[in-house]
């Protein structure tokens, strides 16, 4: 089954769907646009020009030429990086997905991103190295809300082959290979090393993530049962739970209180068990454990006072 038919069979994109494709001009996004345009009835592309590279203008021109060739309407947005934006790649990602989400909501459309199985393997390996937790192994979801990733079962080599077969040009971003970025170091060093161990390394990592995601759903149900709809748990109850389940319960309570991921909370499990009554403990990631009358709750850690 060729790449087009695999994406069609995946069911994330249907012929009656309206789809916004995030188009960088790179190989994977070019492949994605071509495939989606051959499946869905109503397709548009969104390109974000950050103006950070000398090639930014040429990238935009390439996207315009591709969309003209495929008869796909293109919307171009420009973004200027604030001085306090922090991590460059994270800022660019947030801008791209933010603009994409706004456009998809306005058009009542799906938002398609060109992540591949290779990206999935890199994401899992990077997260596992930088944040030890069960969620690090789950990788990116194929579908979440309006966001879909139709190429998640295809490798980067397959998207390249598709573009070559279809005669579709793409642009290369040299920063993707720069060892200044941790993800690029994973791409250039770790993934090739795994392929040397086994040629199907990427697919095996991705398949493991799929299985773990299915198992994670079961674990979530176990946590639901342990909490029984409550936003708290007694320390006595927590202490009789198996440690693995206790850590999951802690993280669930913390993340519901904070509204964000709290990967460091699980690692403080033993410290929480040792808390006395009427105690509190800041656990990192903005989460604070509070014990009152033998009951453990979580709240957001208050911001540090500002001294004038």
Integer-rounded radius of gyration: 22 Å
Helix content: 40-55%
Q: What best-fitting shape do the alpha-carbon axes yield? A: elongated
Name the average pLDDT: 88
| SSE run | HEHEHEHEHEEHHHEHHHEEE
Number of E-state strands: 10
Content of β-strand? 5-15%
Describe the model.
The longest helix is centred in the last third of the chain and has 27 residues, at 201-227. The mean pLDDT is 88. This protein is elongated. The protein is an alpha/beta fold. Helix 8 (201-227) packs across helix 10. 48% of the residues lie in helices and 15% in strands. The protein has helices at residues 3-10, 27-37, 56-70, 88-107, 117-130, 156-166, 182-197, 201-227, 235-240, 243-258, 269-273; strands at 18-22, 42-49, 74-78, 110-112, 143-144, 147-148, 233-234, 279-284, 287-292, 295-300. The strands form 2 sheets. The chain has a 6-stranded mixed beta sheet, sandwiched between helices. It has 2 domains: 3-205, HUPs (Rossmann fold, 3-Layer(aba) Sandwich), CATH 3.40.50.620; 230-300, Uridine Diphospho-n-acetylenolpyruvylglucosamine Reductase, domain 3 (2-Layer Sandwich), CATH 3.30.465.60.
What's the SSE blueprint?
Elements: H1 3-10, E1 18-22, H2 27-37, E2 42-49, H3 56-70, E3 74-78, H4 88-107, E4 110-112, H5 117-130, E5 143-144, E6 147-148, H6 156-166, H7 182-197, H8 201-227, E7 233-234, H9 235-240, H10 243-258, H11 269-273, E8 279-284, E9 287-292, E10 295-300
Parallel strand pairs: 1-2, 1-4, 2-3, 4-6
Antiparallel strand pairs: 5-6, 7-10, 8-9, 9-10
């Amino acid at each position: 089954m060729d790449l087009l038919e695999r994406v069609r069979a995946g069911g994330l994109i249907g012929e009656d769907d309206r789809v916004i494709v995030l188009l960088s001009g790179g190989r994977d996004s070019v492949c994605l646009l071509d495939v989606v345009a051959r499946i869905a009835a109503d397709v548009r592309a969104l390109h974000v020009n950050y103006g950070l590279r000398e090639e930014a203008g040429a990238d935009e021109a390439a996207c315009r030429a591709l969309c003209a060739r495929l008869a796909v309407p293109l919307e171009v947005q420009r973004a200027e990086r604030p001085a306090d934006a922090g991590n460059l790649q994270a800022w660019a990602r947030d801008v791209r997905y933010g603009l994409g989400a706004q456009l998809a909501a306005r058009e009542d459309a799906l938002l398609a991103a060109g992540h591949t199985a290779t990206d999935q393997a890199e994401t899992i390996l990077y997260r596992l190295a930088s944040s030890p937790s069960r969620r690090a192994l789950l990788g990116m979801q194929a579908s979440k809300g309006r966001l879909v990733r139709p190429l998640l079962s295809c490798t980067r080599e397959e998207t390249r082959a598709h573009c070559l077969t279809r005669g579709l040009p793409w642009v290369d971003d040299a920063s993707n290979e720069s060892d200044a970025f941790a993800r690029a170091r994973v791409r250039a060093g770790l993934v090739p090393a795994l392929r040397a161990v086994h040629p199907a390394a990427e697919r095996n990592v991705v398949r493991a993530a799929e299985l773990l995601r299915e198992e994670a759903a079961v674990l979530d149900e176990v946590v639901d049962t342990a909490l029984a709809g409550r936003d708290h748990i007694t320390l006595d109850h927590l202490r009789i739970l198996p440690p693995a389940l206790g850590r999951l319960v802690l993280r669930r309570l913390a993340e519901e209180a904070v509204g964000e991921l709290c990967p460091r909370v699980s690692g403080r499990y033993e410290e929480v068990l040792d808390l006395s009554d009427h105690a509190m403990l800041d656990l990192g990631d903005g989460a604070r454990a509070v014990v009152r009358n033998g009951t453990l709750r979580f709240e957001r850690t208050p911001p540090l006072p500002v001294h004038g």
